[in-house]
Design brief:
6 strands; single chain; alpha+beta; 4-stranded antiparallel beta sheet; 120 residues
């Protein structure tokens, strides 16, 4: 079994219609049901939502010291907003979980396998 990163992105400056309390409740219930499905199937490893990209700090090597600068690392309007780390038998299984996340949050998902340094 391999691990995959399912990452969601936010677009800087993109304005969304605020959710009503009912819509927020429905969204939370949908996400909780999805994560329950992932846990029960053994696919769930970890998930997290991140603060906005402007809260990040980039650490770079300097000549004799580390250099820190305000982030984000990439000059882009799209930034990672959150992620799941899942266990899946293959890419097709990971894509099936990604599809369920897309259905739950209505945003695109990037799927990437972790590099397994122990496999030949």
């Amino acid at each position: 079994m391999s691990q995959y990163l399912l990452s969601t992105y936010a677009i800087e400056g993109e304005v969304h219609k605020p959710m009503t309390p009912e819509e927020m409740q429905k969204s939370m219930e949908t996400m909780m049901a999805l994560e329950t499905d992932m846990r029960e199937s053994g696919a769930f490893a970890f998930s997290a939502r991140l603060h906005d990209a402007d809260t990040s700090t980039v650490v770079r090597p300097g000549d004799d010291t580390l250099i820190t600068t305000d982030g984000p690392f990439a000059e882009s309007k799209e930034h990672i907003a959150g992620f799941y780390i899942i266990n899946a038998d293959d890419l097709d299984a990971a894509l099936a979980w990604a599809g369920k996340v897309v259905d739950a949050i209505g945003r695109p998902i990037e799927v990437r396998p972790f590099f397994d340094m122990h496999s030949g």
